[in-house]
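Worked example

This section walks through a single chain of length 83. The input is the sequence exactly as stored; nothing has been trimmed or padded.
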Amino acid sequence: MIYKTSGVCSTEINIDIEESSEIIKSVKFTRGCEGNASGLSRLLVGMKVDDVIERLEGTTCGKKSTSCPDQLAQALKNWRASK
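Given that input, the structure is written out below as tokens.
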């Protein structure tokens, strides 16, 4: 799935999820802080969708009310709601 972000430096997040197990297979952020996004993406591989949402939702970046990790959690919540 491709999620268009809002309020962060990254413009979109491409997420590959194993549907039957709800395990994250890959995450790729477009733009944003390359090192942080790359590191975060590597950490998430193999995690369950619900665990990622629980850990990342509500994370902020500086004075912003959201962050790239929070946007990822929102993307996963949207994915869950569309099932």
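What to look for: The chain has one domain: 2-82.
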